[in-house]
TrEMBL record:
PANTHER family: ENOYL-COA HYDRATASE, MITOCHONDRIAL, ENOYL-COA HYDRATASE-RELATED. Keywords: Lyase. Pfam families: ECH_1. It comes from the Bacteria. Belongs to the enoyl-CoA hydratase/isomerase family. GO terms for molecular function: hydro-lyase activity. The lineage of its organism: Bacteria, Pseudomonadati, Bacteroidota, Flavobacteriia, Flavobacteriales. It comes from Chryseobacterium nakagawai. This is Crotonase.
Length: 260
């Protein structure tokens, strides 16, 4: 995969995607957003990939937000189209049929915070800072922030973050409930890799179905969510992996899942 603003490497079943605009603190412009969508379309059919880690290039930023200079002079129609482009890219990440881990190594502001929120799990460096400062520019979070953040931490905390535009430490965001772990900077990628490798050992179809049940069921009435859960559970009984998993348990050995 060759991109202008993204770097990708894969070690076994774990892939690492790096937003690579360190000179601009990895800010999201139109090129990055288009490439994220293309990447997502490609990675979901890449053989052997079971877990994806997303991080930012350099030590200062995960993604420091949208490219503000690129927004200067936009018409209302262009601004709406820019928002939809970003939402489409982040939706594609959220809908990947694999676990996606954000390894937040620095500033995750505006679009960077929204990108992290589109991932399944957020691991953050002790030096990471999160925030949605759009209101300080006379704007609002438009890459999914006003929708994903309240679903993650509740409406009242989300209002505080969005209305204030303030920056928050990784520890504060862990307390809010949307950062899973706070990790020493030098250990961040190692810990992300370890977690990814653990998840990669599990049944990949089972992880994909569990992700589907969690993400879509969260928006359903519990009765409908339970029906979906049961249906997805039943679907797993059509896979070879379920036979392998149960057989390995009975035979007291480690399973060898093939994703079939």
């Amino acid at each position: 995969m060759n991109f202008e603003t993204l770097l990708y490497e894969q070690q076994g079943p774990v892939g690492t995607l790096t937003i690579n605009r360190p000179q601009a603190l990895n800010a999201l412009n139109e090129v990055v957003l288009k490439e994220l969508k293309i990447f997502s379309d490609q990675i979901k059919t890449t053989p052997g990939i079971r877990v994806l880690i997303i991080t930012g290039s350099g030590e200062k930023a995960f993604v420091a937000g949208a490219d503000i200079k690129a927004m200067q002079g936009m018409t209302p129609q262009e601004a709406e189209a820019f928002s939809i482009m970003a939402q489409t890219a982040f939706n594609a990440i959220e809908e990947l049929p694999m676990a996606v881990i954000a390894a937040v190594n620095g500033f995750a502001l505006g679009g960077g915070c929204e990108l992290a929120l589109s991932c399944d799990i957020i691991l953050a460096s002790e030096k990471a800072k999160f925030g949605l400062p759009e209101v300080t520019l006379g704007l609002l979070p438009c890459f999914g922030g006003t929708q994903r953040l309240p679903r993650a931490i509740g409406l009242y905390k989300a209002r505080e973050m969005v209305f204030s535009g303030e920056f928050y430490s990784a520890a504060a965001c862990k307390e809010f409930g949307f950062v899973n772990r706070v990790i020493a900077p030098e250990e961040l990628l190692n810990e992300a890799q370890k977690l990814a490798e653990t998840i990669a050992l599990r049944g990949p179809i089972a992880v994909a179905k569990a992700k589907q049940s969690l993400n879509t069921g969260f928006e359903l009435h519990i009765a409908d969510g339970l029906k979906q859960e049961a249906a997805l559970f039943g679907e797993l009984f059509t896979t070879q992996d379920h036979n392998e998993g149960i057989g390995a348990f009975i035979e007291k050995r480690n399973p060898d899942f093939t994703g079939k």
